[in-house]
Amino acid sequence: FMQSLAHDQFVLLAVTLWAIWTARRKAIHEGIFQSPQATNSFVRRFIDELNMITVRSPTRNSAAPAMGQRAVRPKAPHAGFAKIHVDAGVRARKGGSAAAVCRDGQGNYLGSSALVVAGLEDPAILEAVACREALALAADLNLHNFVIASDSKQTVADISCGGKGRNGSIIQEINVRATLFQCNFSFEGCAANVEAHKLVKYSLSLGPGRHLWLGQPHDPSCIPPIVVFHK
């Protein structure tokens, strides 16, 4: 049966079985119960991260895209607005991280931050925390007009409609805080959210707490001083 599966199907099967086994083990040995939705979100998130690792160049100085291919650039914000990309991730038995990377309308780096939370491994909650972290970063940078871009459609939808699921209290806090700014929340795919994804991976190697980089990124080879937005 395994040999008849395509590679993508085999990866999906293996990750799903692993996630179910992990959830079952936590329920039996630790008394921690995870909903099927949380398990499914973890599987999809984990596979997305695997795909990003696969397509990423192994060298720091990336070559130009091959003929016929075009790099995916982040969308430009409206005139007079800054742009904050957010992402979240989990490291098994370590906890999770929610990260935000901010640039001005011309693509210049302004600042970034990451909140590492020990023991928190729920992707849906972490994605909401990442959007809240973007608001905190905007306050640190004294910004008032900005767009927050997330690669989680569900989180953006929850913020828009005031979702009341297990991340409902965070969604409510986000909507209250957002009234202090002129800001919008939008969905943008993983391919254009590479910087925030890299910051999540890096921050998971740090200790719990909030980490902040203003004016200068933690690693210019991962988060360059300037990027060109897609107009």
Brief sketch in words of this structure:
This protein has 6 helices and 6 strands; from the N terminus they run H-H-E-E-E-H-E-H-H-E-H-E. With 231 residues, it is of the alpha/beta class.
Folded structure, characterized:
The chain is of the alpha/beta class and 231 residues long. Helix content is 40%, strand content 20%. A six-stranded mixed β-sheet has the order 5-4-1-2-3-6. The protein folds into two domains: 54 residues, no CATH class; 133 residues, Ribonuclease H-like superfamily/Ribonuclease H (Nucleotidyltransferase, domain 5). Helix 1 crosses helix 2 and helix 3 runs parallel beside helix 5. The relative contact order is 0.16. The protein has six helices and six strands; from the N terminus they run H-H-E-E-E-H-E-H-H-E-H-E. A hairpin with a 3-residue loop joins strand 1 and strand 2.
Task: Offer a few descriptive terms.
231 residues, 2 domains, Nucleotidyltransferase, domain 5, 6 strands, 6-stranded mixed beta sheet, alpha/beta, globular
What is the alpha-carbon Rg in Å? 18 Å
The description of the largest β-sheet is: 6 strands, mixed
Number of domains: 2
Spell out the CATH superfamily of the largest domain: Ribonuclease H-like superfamily/Ribonuclease H
Our count of helices gives 6
Q: Rough shape?
A: globular
Query: Helical content, roughly?
Result: 25-40%
Low-confidence stretches: 53-70
SSE run: HHEEEHEHHEHE
Protein name: RNase H type-1 domain-containing protein
Organism: Aegilops tauschii subsp. strangulata (Goatgrass)
Signal peptide: 1-25
Keywords: Signal
